Structures are given as C-alpha cells and as structure tokens.
Amino acid sequence: MDDELYQEFITESEESITQLNNSLLDLESNPENTEAIDDIFRQAHTLKGNFGAMGFDNAAKVAHSVEDLLDAVRNGEIEVTHERMDLVFDGMDEILDILHEIEAEGESQRDPSDLVEEIRAAASPDAEAGADADGGGEADAENAAAGADANADGEALDLAADVLDLDDPEVADADELFHARIELDAGDMKGVDAGLFVGGLPDDLAVVGAEPAVEEIEEGEFDEDFVVFVADVPELELEPLLEDLWKVESVTLTDVSSLVESGPTGERGTGEPETTAETTTDASEGSGAEDPEATTGDVDADSAAAAVDAVVDAYTSGGASTGGTDAGGSDTEAVGTDPDTDVAESGSGDDSEAAPSVGDDAEEVSSDTSDGQRSGGRDERPDSGGSDGSGNADSDGSGNADSDGSGNADSDEKKRSNGDDADDDSSTDETPSISEVKSVRVDVDQLDELHSLVEQLVTSRIKLRQAVGEDETAGRDTLDELDKISSNLQDTVMDMRLIPLKKVFDKFPRLVRDLAREEEKRVSFSVEGQDIELDRTILDEISDPLMHVLRNAVDHGIEPPEERAAAGKSKTGSVELRAEREHDTVVITVEDDGAGIDADVIREKAAEKGIRPREELAELPDEEIYEYIFHPGFSTNEEITDVSGRGVGMDVVKTTVESLDGSVNVDSTLGEGTEISIRLPVSVAIIKVLFVQIGGREFGVPIKYIDEISQQTRIQRVDGAEVIVHEEKIFPLIRLREALELGSARADSGMIVRVRPADRQVALRCDGVSRQEEVVVTPLQGPLRGTDGLSGTAVVGDGNVVPILDVNSLPIPDEGKQARRQWAPPEDDGSEAEGAAD
C-alpha cells in the first residue's frame, strides 16, 4: 500500500471519528435535531466506506452497525436514549482501537462481533421493551431483528425472481447479485432528478434489472423509492458507489445471489475463448477506454489493433480535443477535456458523476497530473501539460500507454521524427488547465528540520552583525537586507508550525460526557476560541494537562444533582473551556460553577502530608493555598478511583506548563466555582529577550513578560518590604543578585524591570540593562532541568552562552509576600509610602 495514502487514511479517519463523536454529543443533547441526525448518518456512512475500501472489514462492520442504529433513529423507529448512545460511543471507541492497531501493526485482528450484535439489537424497536422483560429480553430483540431481516430477504428474492431474466448470461453467470432499494431526495422536478441519477450510473456497472423499469425510473414514474439489481460488485464497494450518485438519500442492499447458480470465475458473458479475452483487454488498455463490444468478446485481434491505431492517429493529428466518436473517441475526450467540464455538462453537479463518455482513465490522468505538481519533482515534465504540450507524452502520467510501450510511445517517436516541435506551442492553448494547488502536505520531521535551520540562521545573523564593524557601511547595508529576509523567513516558518487549538479541543466534549455519565452528574460543556493557534510543539504537550484540568473540574468541582438542587443551583453543572490571545501568549481557561475549592481542607491535607507546618499554612491567604493542589502526590479525595485520588494529575499540569515557559493561575470562590488559567507562549525557541547585567554577568529576560523599565529610585518600603507601587498595586521586589546567589553586594545605582501583573506581580532589580535581541533558547537538560529562576540558555553573537531567566520561578522574599497580602491602597493619592531604599 502507498505510504502516503496509508497515512492519509489514518489521519482522516482519526479526524472523522473525533468529528463524529462531537456530532453524536449534539444529538444526545438535542434528539429532535433532524439535521444533526442526517449529518451524523452521512459521517458514519463515509467512515464505513473508507474502512471497507481499505480492506479493514472489522471496523467497517462496527461502523455499519452504528449506521443501522442511526438510521432507525432517523426513521423514527427508536428514540435516542443514553443507553443507546453509550453503545454508539462504544462503537466509536472500538473503531478507534482498530485504527490504532492498524497504525501500529499494519492490520487489525480485533473481533468486534459481540459489540456489533449489541448495537444491532439496540437498533431494533423491540429492544427497549425486550430489555425490561425478566430474562431473554436480549434474545427476543435479536430474534425480532432476525425475523425482520428474513422477511426482507424473502421479499427481495421474490421480486428478483419476478423481474430478472434468469437466462440472461449477466444474471446466470453472476458471482454476486444484489437487490438495491434506493430512495432519492427528489425535488419538485422528480423526473429531472431521477434522470440525472440514471445518467450518473457508471457504464461498467452491471444493472441487470429494475423495478419499475429503468426507463420509468428515468421519467420519475415511481413512488418513494425504487429497486435496481446489480451483478458482480462487492457490497462494500456497491453501497458507497450508489450513495454517491445524484440525490441519493439512502441505499438498502439485500444479497439475492442464492437465486442463481454462479459459474466459474472469469467465465461470464458469451464464453469466448481465453485468447480473445486477452486481446480485448489489451485493446482496452491501449485505448484508455472501455469498448462496449470488448466486454462481450465480439472484437477480434485485428479490430482491437485498429482501435489502438485510431487512438494513436487522433493524438498525432492533434485530435485530442475534438471529442470525436471514432474508436478512440471516448479516450480522446478523457484526455483532452477537463473532467470538471464534463461533470458540469452532465448536469450532475458532482465530480464523482462525470458524463458516461469519460472513462476511468480520465480520472487517472487528472489525478496523476495533479500528483506530479504536488510532489514537486516526481513528474519530470516542465509543465502540467507534458513535454509536447498535449498532456500525452508521459506514458507514466497520461494513462494512455501500455507498460510495454505500445500506444503513445509510437506517437511520440512520430512527433520527434517529423519535427513537430512547432505544433507544441499551438496545442498548448488547447491543453486543459489544472486547478492551482492551494496546499501541500509536509512531513512534520521536515518542518522541524526547517525550523532548526532557521534557528541556525538567526544565530549566524547575530554573529555576523557583531563581526561587521561600525565603519563598514556597505557591509551593514547588506546585513540589514539579510535581517529583513531572515526575519520574514522566520515568521513564515513559525506560522507554518501554528495549529488551531481545535485539534486538541475537539477531543474533550466526549471526555467530559463520559466522565459525567460515570459519576452520575449532569454537565453542560462549552468551548470557545478553538480557532486560536499555537505552535505544534506546545500543542502536542498541552493536551494531557488540559485533560487533567477538565477531569478535575468534573470530579472535584461539579456536585451531584441532589447537592446542587439543595444549594439552590441548577441540577446541571457548567464547565467552560475557552482560549484567548493576548499579545505573544495564549490564555486557556477552564471554569466551572461547582463547589469551589475549600482552602481550609487544603490546609489540613498539606499539614497532614508534612508539606508545611500548620501554623504557617493558617497565615497564608487562600490564593497561595490554592497552589498546593499542584504539589506532587496531593489530593483531597479520601479514596483512590479511576478518576482521582493519586495526586498526579494536577502535578502534571504545573510541571508541563512551566516546562513550556508558561504559568498556571487558580481563582476560586467556595460554593460558586473555580477558574484555572494556563498562560502559554504562542511559539517556542526563538524569542526576544532584554539583556540585563548582574555583577558583571549577563542574563536574558523574555520581552513578553516585561511591562516597564525604570530607575532604581522607584523602590519603596511597605511594612519593611521592598516594593514598587504602580496603579494602586504593589510589586514585591526580587533582587536578582540575591535570588540567583551571585553575592549580596548592593550597587549605588541600578534598574527596575517590572513584570506584567497577568504573568506575575513582581519587579526585578538588576545592575543595568544593555540591549534587546532575538535569540534561540535551548531548554535546560539533565541535572540542570528544573533549576529555579532559569528556563534555558541562548548562544549570542560573540559565542557566549547567556542564561535566560524564568520569571515565574524566581523566589520572592517572605516580606514581599506578606506586604502584598496586607496591602491596601492609600486613600490620598498624593501620600507617599516610606522613603526609597538605596
């Protein structure tokens, strides 16, 4: 199997399952939404067809059973219940498990038969009543379903016996024969819709009978549905093929192969000698069209050869766009006409319903040519039309030459020998245009490699700027140009790495639903901001932390319905997941209207575990107490369950977020709810930093955290603590020299870097600031990982390694914390706090 096709199948199937899960949640919350039911039904059908087409029958069977259940819902035969939806979701989980097994091992050995039987039983109108009976309820439902299937099969066989001519070779020699009941979504012009449906039937589809007759169907002379009998097409191929035709609302297949005795494989039709069959096959391959006579074996070798010559002559004489009706006419249209144009002329309005004159090879030409453009090198032709401008020179991509070189190979030799180069320009105008490629698939490893190269380019650019002297005007002008180019390249690469949060957010509605069902709680879940983008690396890492926060909201936050009713709340709790963009950061918030966090309970647990003395915990404000929910091994649950109790979930949240240069904040009101906010950078690795000096050494502070830079004279004292007062808020001062243990000597002068309150309400004191610059940050590894106050290192232009400060983990002096807790803005704006230090 082609690796690209295989990976595309895996990716698209995962996305389809996620979308289907979310659509099913919408249906469960609003069973009367008929549009949602129809949409879900189509999604399930597509999923079934994809797995069937790839040969993974076990997943296709599960999807088929889910489709049957949803069809019963759509037809009003059964109601949407939580129990039935549980089975549907179990089916989705089984398909996902099969998909993961296919991805890991290339195949799946799982046997979903038991689950399929359960889902089919739930699809029966009698299943609910049977389930209430004592014993044998499930068996009754299965028997009822089996009886209904048997009646349907009997009716289909009876109709086949009445309609079909059993002496017809196409019927008598068929290995498979299906009764297909088709319902059209026909509008006011029933005959037109039915005519387009009949016109869209592929030429090679063996329709051996119909009720009413095909001519009557085409005129719209039928009630709500009609029946066609099709021979020798596998069920997994036939159903999606028919459902993709014009205005088809539903297709129900019944196997009636037992009506006839199937002959040996390959001996259908008139039973012509084997050599004749081989000759007609060659003719078909050489011409690129399927001759109606060739399928009956009535064309001899000479006629087949003549057909090939006719096609060659048509191409050589430039007749590819004439659309003639000679032996090669069908193939001429296939190559020389834009398939999209043929679709429009057919009136079907769908790419899959091209006019009957366009053979399968036309689709191959379109697909291969597009692939050639997309691959950026696989197709050696200088333009999309081929080296001769006609689109037929490349036997690889045209679909018009046999592997042995017959067909267009001779045509090419004639062109070269006759010097037809002059004709190339004129024929170019007649070459069908191919839609412009709007996007390409890029392997993530290649994207990471490109990003790495850009990082190296940025570092080299910094070094080059320092190497070029101030007096070298020409060199600096060139360097400025390089700056502009490399910056644009950097921005482009960073944008390519950005992925919408929807990729992660779409997985959570199902998670919340299942958890609420497990804990017998009622939860309304809403999502906002899923279109906001984050760097791929961050997005990969943030999925698990968000999962733990949501599980915590449902498990610890939302109360059982009885407790909520007793507290005067709605029995249905609310959990909201939202994302907002703020400058170079993204804030992801999980908010619930549950019980809130009891700070006293956390104090007691923290004291029991010996995290901190009970006396100190009692003095801490609730805002600081909330931080202990992220402590490793901390949990307020007395019992360990599948959801909580081990104290590892929220620990993962804080550890992961901080490793991504982010921060977590908790805000809660007892009895009203909790809000947990995660602030993350939009992208990683290349950031702008402000270089600060501390005792003769240089450190970097990320620009995104900085709100203001000022003189040291702004330092004030409040209750003995050094602080900066700004807009009625106080920012405890962190002296970087002492925080990083570089000595306690205090300079007479210095600078203050105030951090944005949204990130951390502190101010940093340094000896001086020098410049700001873009750098490539390398996270700390090994024993240095997790060092308080440092997030990584950067190599600057002169080759020196500069530590990058982690604003969130720099220690605040205890006096500063206490002053911030007790701070009350002065009533008189003109009054001043105690004198400045230093």
From TrEMBL:
SMART domains cross-referenced by the UniProt entry: CheW (SM00260), H-kinase_dim (SM01231), HATPase_c (SM00387), HPT (SM00073)
Keyword check for Amino-acid biosynthesis: no
SUPFAM superfamilies: ATPase domain of HSP90 chaperone/DNA topoisomerase II/histidine kinase, CheW-like, CheY-binding domain of CheA, Histidine-containing phosphotransfer domain, HPT domain, Homodimeric domain of signal transducing histidine kinase
One Pfam match: HATPase_c
Transcription regulation is among the record's keywords: no
Reactions it catalyzes: ATP + protein L-histidine = ADP + protein N-phospho-L-histidine
Domain of life: Archaea
Protein keywords: ATP-binding, Chemotaxis, Cytoplasm, Kinase, Nucleotide-binding, Phosphoprotein, Transferase, Two-component regulatory system
Domain called HPt: residue spans: 1-102
Sequence ranges of Low complexity compositional bias: 261-286, 390-409
Annotated segments matching region Disordered: 124-150, 257-298, 318-440, 813-838
Predominant localisation class: cytoplasm
Protein name as annotated: Chemotaxis protein CheA
